[in-house]
Design goal:
single chain; 110 residues; mainly beta; Thrombin, subunit H; 1 helix; 9% helix; 54% strand
Length: 110
């Protein structure tokens, strides 16, 4: 699902120093998330993501630069699978939107 919210991400840099900074939550799934971030974080880095009322642990699976910053793909650890305790401020379920839209127009989607 597409979403938008500010979260805190914590990790250890290559020298072992603790790092913490804000990131923009771009999208979520049951087992992962994509964050927009201002600096690269190496693939394989363990991170914790702090959302209001929830803390999730994961591993950076990709880090790519696009025009507006770095995008981090975070695979959540099994114990930290996405839950509904936290709901981003802006959340868009595209599948639900398409189904609702199709139902109101005889199955035809523009």
């Amino acid at each position: 699902m597409l979403c938008a919210d500010i979260v805190e991400i914590c990790w250890r840099d290559p020298s072992g120093g603790k790092q913490q900074n804000a990131a923009l939550l771009e999208d979520i799934s049951r087992s992962g998330m994509c964050l927009q971030f201002e600096a690269p974080i190496s693939e394989g880095t363990r991170v914790s993501v702090h959302c209001p009322g929830e803390k999730m642990a994961g591993i950076v699976r990709y880090c790519v630069y696009r025009e507006i910053g770095y995008f981090l793909g975070i695979e959540l650890e099994k114990a930290a699978l996405w839950s509904r305790k936290y709901e981003p401020k802006h959340l868009l379920d595209l599948q639900d939107m398409v189904l609702r839209h199709a139902g109101g127009h005889g199955g035809y989607v523009h």
